[in-house]
Every structure is written in structure tokens, then in C-alpha cells.
């Protein structure tokens, strides 16, 4: 109840207030403060974890520093990088609009903030967040520029951005070679071992955070949810029932670490049945509805980000995921309904 209270408080305070929200002003403040906070935390991490930083600079355990840095902020790495992916796209949106208004003259601190947030995304280095951020960058470029510049200029800017991103990613991969392995052979390795993780001699060292582990969890959660498909097992019993399913299917590794579902849709299917899945889809697709009605790329990207992030994690059982979505949905909804009311008046 405490975690979900924000879904009541934020709409009440934000949608119910009397003055009109300045969306661009909010994005600018968010961009500056969030980027600054991230780099203050990074400097702190460089001081308190010099050994990990040295390993990172030597190209050893690229994933370790990103996850350790996220843990030092008390946030799970995929959750933190979901926020950072949104920050990258916000910085892209502000940069593009600044460039259009100033006729592509000096871009000052906006380009610094964009590059800084992109580098932070790569440092934390979670795959889905990086893919979402790249998609969001091109989404912003296309829709913000489509009606404001010529087709020739749109193509040239898009091509230039593609080259810039390729150079950044290539340079990062050269500096830290493990990233190439991580994004190729490591990601989809051992998929023949789904549901058979105990076959590994050292599962903690080999597949603890791998994709095959998540698929094994999803498989177990899906099979268990079939027994209570209509109404689910209940919110209080969801985790216990999943852990019991690990034991019933003799999956010692999963049972030992009591992994959660890592998929919001399966989590609600297990807990609340079919109605739970309908409920979570209505909650998330409401973001898309607002974005399409408002015809604004930022809420549309937010929908893509939150929808896909919940395919590999369960952010609506986490405080950071609940407040993140409730805050921004309330801001989007407030602006959309105020705009609609003004049109009617």
C-alpha cells in the first residue's frame, strides 16, 4: 500500500492543481538536476571503489562496475538505466528543439548534457535500456524534425546522428572489448538449458544474470500461473508460490536464490490472473493513448520504454518503478487535459 500510494497522490496533486504545467521547463530542470546528480554519484563511486574502477578501465568485468555503481545508489542497475534512457531521450528532445529555434547555431550546454547522459547509459550498460535509448533518439529526431525541416536536411541529420552513435559505440567497444562479447555470444548463450540451470557446474558464476536464467524463471512462472489462471494466487502469495514452483520442479539454483518473475505481465498473471494482465496493460497503454492524443513524442517514447522494460523486469512491484510511472503519467495527463480544456473553451 505504501509503495502504490503514489499512484493516488501524484494524480491528485498534479492533475488536480489549478495552474498550467510548463512541460519544457520541467524537462529542462529534470535534465540538469538528474544529470548532475548522476555524475556526483559517479565521482563518489570513483573514490570509494577504486579497485572496481581499475578493473573497468582494464576491460575486465565490464558489467560489474555498472551494476556495482547502480547498487551504490541503492537502485537496481536495470531500473537506474531505465531512468537514464529516459534522460537521454529528454536531452535529445531538448537539444533538437534548441537547435531548431536557434537555427543550428552554438548548441552550448545542451550537447554537453546529451553526451554526458549517453556516456552514463553506457557505463551502467544494460542492454534493453541502451536499445530503448537509441530507438528514442531516432524517434525524437524523426518526429520533431519531420514538419520543421526539409526532407534532405532530415535525412542528413539522421545519417549524421547514426554515424555519431556508431563512433561512440565503436570507441566504447574498443576501450572495453568485453562489450562486444556481451552483446553477441553472451546474451543468448545456453538457451538449450532453459529450465535445466542445475546442469551448470557453477551457475552463480556462469549464468546468474544471464538471459537463460530469466527465461527459465518465466517458464516456471507461466506454468504455475496456469493452475490459477482466472483469479491468480493473490498478491500476498505470489512470491511464495513461485518459490514453491521452483522446488516442485527440482530447480535448485532458482530455489536457492528465490528469483522474482522479472516480468511484470507474468507477475500480475500469477498474482491476479487474466484480470491482472488486463489491468497492467490498461495502465501502461494509457501512456500511449495520452501520447497519441497529445501528439507528443516524449510520452510516446515513455510508453515504449516502460512497456519493454516490464518485459524483462517487474517495475510495478518496485517503489522506483511505481513512482517513476505515476509521476510522469500524471504530468503527461495534466498537460493533455489542460490543452483539451483550453481548446473547448
For the structure shown, list the relevant keywords.
75% helix; mainly alpha
Brief characterization of the structure:
This protein is an all-alpha fold and 345 residues long. Helix content is 75%, strand content 0%.
Fold and architecture overview:
It is a single chain. This protein has 345 residues and is mainly α. The chain is globular and about 65 Å long.
Secondary structure class reads mainly alpha
- Mean pLDDT, to the nearest integer, reads 88
| Main sheet summary | none
Give the beta-strand count: 0
The string of secondary-structure elements, in order, is HHHHHHHHHHHHHHHHH
Q: Which residues sit in consecutive blocks of at least 5 with pLDDT less than 50?
A: none
**Number of helical stretches of at least 4 residues:** 17
Helix content: over 70%
Cα gyration radius (Å): 22 Å
User: What fraction of residues sit in β-strands?
Assistant: under 5%
Shape: globular
| N-end to C-end Cα span | 38 Å
Amino acid at each position: 500500500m505504501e509503495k502504490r500510494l503514489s499512484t493516488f497522490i501524484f494524480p491528485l496533486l498534479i492533475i488536480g492543481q489549478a495552474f498550467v504545467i510548463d512541460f519544457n521547463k520541467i524537462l529542462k530542470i529534470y535534465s540538469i538536476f538528474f544529470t548532475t546528480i548522476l555524475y556526483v554519484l559517479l565521482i563518489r563511486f570513483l573514490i570509494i571503489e577504486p579497485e572496481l574502477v581499475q578493473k573497468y578501465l582494464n576491460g575486465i568485468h565490464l558489467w560489474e562496475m555498472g551494476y556495482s555503481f547502480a547498487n551504490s545508489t541503492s537502485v537496481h542497475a536495470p531500473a537506474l538505466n531505465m531512468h537514464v534512457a529516459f534522460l537521454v531521450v529528454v536531452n535529445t528532445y531538448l537539444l533538437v528543439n534548441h537547435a531548431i529555434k536557434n537555427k543550428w547555431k552554438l548548441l552550448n550546454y545542451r550537447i554537453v548534457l546529451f553526451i554526458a547522459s549517453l556516456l552514463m547509459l553506457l557505463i551502467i550498460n544494460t542492454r534493453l535500456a541502451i536499445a530503448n535509448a537509441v530507438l528514442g533518439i531516432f524517434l525524437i529526431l524523426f518526429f520533431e524534425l519531420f514538419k520543421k525541416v526539409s526532407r534532405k536536411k532530415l535525412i542528413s541529420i539522421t545519417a549524421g546522428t547514426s554515424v555519431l552513435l556508431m563512433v561512440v559505440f565503436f570507441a566504447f567497444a574498443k576501450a572495453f572489448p568485453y562489450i562486444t562479447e556481451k552483446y553477441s555470444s553472451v546474451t543468448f548463450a545456453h538457451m538449450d538449458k532453459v529450465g535445466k540451470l542445475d546442469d551448470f557446474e557453477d551457475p552463480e558464476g556462469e549464468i546468474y544474470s544471464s538471459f537463460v536464467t530469466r527465461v527459465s524463471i518465466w517458464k516456471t512462472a507461466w506454468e504455475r500461473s496456469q493452475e490459477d489462471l482466472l483469479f491468480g494466487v493473490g498478491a500476498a502469495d505470489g512470491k511464495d508460490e513461485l518459490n514453491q514452483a521452483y522446488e516442485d520442479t527440482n530447480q535448485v539454483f532458482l530455489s536457492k536464490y528465490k528469483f522474482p518473475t522479472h516480468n511484470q505481465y507474468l507477475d500480475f498473471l500469477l498474482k491476479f490472473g487474466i484480470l491482472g494482465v488486463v489491468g497492467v496493460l490498461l495502465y501502461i497503454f494509457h501512456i500511449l493513448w495520452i501520447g497519441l492524443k497529445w501528439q507528443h513524442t516524449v510520452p510516446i517514447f515513455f510508453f515504449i520504454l516502460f512497456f519493454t522494460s516490464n518485459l524483462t523486469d517487474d517495475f510495478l512491484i518496485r517503489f522506483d518503478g511505481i513512482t517513476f510511472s505515476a509521476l510522469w503519467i500524471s504530468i503527461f495527463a495534466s498537460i493533455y487535459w489542460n490543452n483539451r480544456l483550453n481548446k473547448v473553451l
